[in-house]
Write a structure and sequence with these properties.
- By secondary structure, the chain is of the alpha+beta class.
- It folds into two domains: 178 residues, GAF domain (Beta-Lactamase, 2-Layer Sandwich); 66 residues, Winged helix-like DNA-binding domain superfamily/Winged helix DNA-binding domain (Arc Repressor Mutant, subunit A), CATH 1.10.10.10.
- β4 and β5 form a beta hairpin.
- The longest helix has 55 residues.
Length: 268
């Protein structure tokens, strides 16, 4: 396995794995993949889905002590990434250092290149001199960042960390890449579904607003005898004069008409 960004000037760790260890790692990878495959996006929020994926990643990636998931935001804001639940609190500290404090680190490099990134001694890694020193002082020395890629687009990354130096050898990178592909699809599907739900809710709110606006237009027409177009113009003018959103003006008018009707009937 050579298709990843290794730490410059540091020899790749050599591992002599027994058949039993290889089999055990394969079993853990299989369990992680089964977990990802079992995620039913409709029953979970995006945050819950990503928490599950981080948990499965720790099991599937040999040598990982903790993991987290980062997504690239689809809109312009600073920072341009969004972090989600992690499996250990120290990953949150590392996220804050990487994305907010210094603006460099394995995840950022990974998402920019679209390639896995490995470091076996963060404190001496020349790629991120400010990031590495901070994290090494926390006792975290190894990192493995995996891009989440769907249709050639990087949508985020899985970030795994270990206390030991040189925790992620070629074997670990190979298995982790097998995990990252299905994980990316699950993340993408969860985002698509969340977006669909959001658009549906916006549409429902818009339809509700339209209904109450139509009711307010009807009230104005009943009181003044004007056309629907003129009634809507009057409602819009009130909204502009009072600097209040149109649907709120309409709701107020409908509620006031209902209150007056109740008073006429002697109801509270």
């Amino acid at each position: 396995m050579s298709d990843y960004d290794a730490q410059p000037g540091r020899a790749r760790p050599q591992q002599e794995l027994s058949p039993q260890q290889i089999e055990s790692d394969e079993v853990d990878l299989h369990a992680g993949l089964l977990g990802v495959a079992g995620i039913v996006a409709g029953a979970r929020t995006v945050g819950e889905t990503l928490r599950n994926i981080a948990e499965f990643a720790v099991r599937a990636i040999p040598g990982a002590d903790a993991a987290g998931v980062t997504l690239i935001k689809s809109y312009a804001r600073t920072p341009p990434v969004e972090t989600w639940p992690v499996t250990a609190s120290f990953v949150e500290e590392i996220d804050a250092i990487q994305y907010t404090d210094v603006g460099e680190g394995p995840c950022i490099t990974c998402m920019e290149s679209g390639r896995p990134v490995v470091s076996g001694s963060l404190g001496s890694d020349s790629r991120w001199p400010r990031f590495g020193g901070h994290v090494a002082r926390m006792g975290v020395h190894s990192a493995l960042a995996l891009p989440l890629i769907v249709d050639d687009d990087v949508i985020g990354a899985i970030n795994s960390y270990a206390y030991a130096r040189d925790a992620f050898a070629d074997h670990a990178v190979q298995l982790s890449c097998q995990f990252a592909g299905p994980a990316a699809v699950s993340v993408y599907n969860a985002l698509l579904l969340a977006g669909a739900w959001e658009r549906t809710e916006r549409l429902q709110r818009a339809l509700g607003s339209r209904a109450v606006i139509d009711q307010a237009v009807g009230i104005i027409r009943a009181r003044s005898g004007v056309t629907a177009e003129k009634a809507f113009e009057r409602l819009t003018q009130i909204s502009q004069d009072e600097n209040v959103k149109l649907h709120l003006v309409a709701e107020r008018m409908v509620e006031e008409a209902a209150r007056r009707a109740r008073v006429r009937r002697g109801q509270p």
